[in-house]
Amino acid sequence: EKAGYDYFMLKEIAEQPKAVADTLLGRIDGSGTLSLDEVRIPARVLREVGKVVIVACGTAFHAGLIAKYAIEHWTRVPCEVELASEFRYRDPILDQQTLVVAISQSGETMDTLMALRHAREQGAKVLAICNTNGSTIPRESDAVLYTHAGPEVAVASTKAFLTQLVACYLVALYLGQVRGTKYGDEIRDVVRDLSRISGAVEQVLETMEPVRELARSLAHKNTVLFLGRHVGHPVALEGALKLKELAYMHAEGFAAGELKHGPIALIEEDLPVVVVVPSPRGRSVIHDKIVSNIQEIRARGARTIVIAEEGDEAVVPYADHLVRVPATPTLLQPLVATVPLQVFACELATARGNEVDQPRNLAKSVTVE
Ligand code: M6R
Questions:
Q1: Among residues 113, 170, 341, 121, which one has the least CA distance to residue 247?
Q2: What's the 351 CA to ligand 1 centre distance in angstroms?
Q3: Cβ count within 10 A of residue 209
Q4: pLDDT digits (tens, 9 = 90+) for 142-176
Q5: Ligand 1: does its nearest atom lie under 6 Å from the Cβ of 157?
Q6: Is 57 in the pocket of ligand 1 (CB under 6 A)?
Q7: Rounded distance between C-alpha atoms, residue 225 and residue 251, angstroms
Q8: I need a surface site. Which of 64, 136, 217, 340 has the fewest CB within 10 A?
Q9: Which of 36-50, 121-135, 237-251, 310-324 has the lowest mean pLDDT?
Q10: Are the C-beta atoms of residues 200 and 9 closer than 8 Å to each other?
């Protein structure tokens, strides 16, 4: 069943280009228009949506954090993202113009299910993004957009995450398309880029040997920090989560801009710090700021592991280890930037002798609150 791989996780990491392509299949036509009739929420209702609220847990929550950037940019509709376990306990403000998006690989996560039940009780419409046909979350939602990652067996979520991102981009772009924002041209371009993105994921997978080697060399470390900015921030959080659950190491993700507000005190000689660098094109101000963050932490002795787009030369002088990812539109970068972090965590777990597919204390789907 593992198709020659030692672990399901390795197989599932390798399946990501196909999972991404399958999730896009039939949803984009040749002219760059999205057809998401399957969502079954009438365009009229989508045009009236006043607020989007995303609820999810763990890795799916990180997909939601990235979705917020895409939704607010392309649709100009305010979007909140909340941990499903916190949602209903704070008496959230919801009404019939609220679109709640519940993201769940398994479709059985109790925290997410309780959040969506609460949302529906308040009159909100719920759209599920789910990988498991006929599971409880899509059954109890008003509409569903399935991810087509295929069964994910390893406890650590990999291919499901990438397909959740694709589904989130589709929802954001579709909402933008239906509502007709000033980003119409950009939306058409991004839809085309998205339709080619599985090739970029494949390209990343082909260049992962140095990342594996690096991971093995860090197996004795206690702590790894992850920094990112813009959509790179949730990617950093996801990299840290993978490392915690697989390698049982202390790992933390920060927004790079927060460094100076506290976390920089953690930097010490030879501490590995992974930095996810946004594209130098587009939001170049953010890019320049993160380059100076890398400079700052390196000056304090950190061992910098830099994930940066091909052709980004500004990072070269400050990177102890440089991992290249293909150039993508800014908002799509998480689809390529997350992959090296998955490989890194998986290899570190193996080097530390941990059970990769079944980390201690964890279950694949968490059906208790
Ligand atoms: O099945 P779900 O997507 O609802 O699961 C949510 C989380 O439990 C899940 O993503 C968890 O964080 C993973 N083990 C992370 O790798």
A1: 341
A2: 24
A3: 9
A4: 999 999 999 999 999 999 999 999 999 999 999 99
A5: yes
A6: yes
A7: 6
A8: 217
A9: 36-50
A10: no
Establish whether residue 59 lines the binding site of ligand 1, counting it when its CB lies within 6 angstroms of any ligand atom. Answer: yes
Q: Is 274 exposed, middle or buried (0-12, 13-18, 19+ CB in 10 A)?
A: buried
> How far is residue 102's CA from residue 255's CA, in Å, rounded to a whole number?
24
Residues 33, 228: Cα–Cα separation, whole Å: 31
Annotated active-site positions, please?
364
Q: What is the pTM of this model?
A: 0.97
How many angstroms from the chain centroid is the CA of residue 345? 15
Question: pLDDT band at 182, cuts 50/70/90?
Answer: confident
Give the residue with greater pLDDT, 282 vs 292: 292
- Ligand 1 centroid – CA 188 distance (Å): 32
Residue 71 Cβ < 6 Å to ligand 1: no
**Residue nearest ligand 1's atom 11 by CA:** 58
14-64: per-residue pLDDT in tens?
Answer: 999 999 999 999 998 877 788 887 888 888 999 999 999 999 999 999 999
CA 329/CA 336 separation, integer angstroms = 11
> Pseudo-torsion of CA 99, 32, 40, 46, nearest 10°?
30
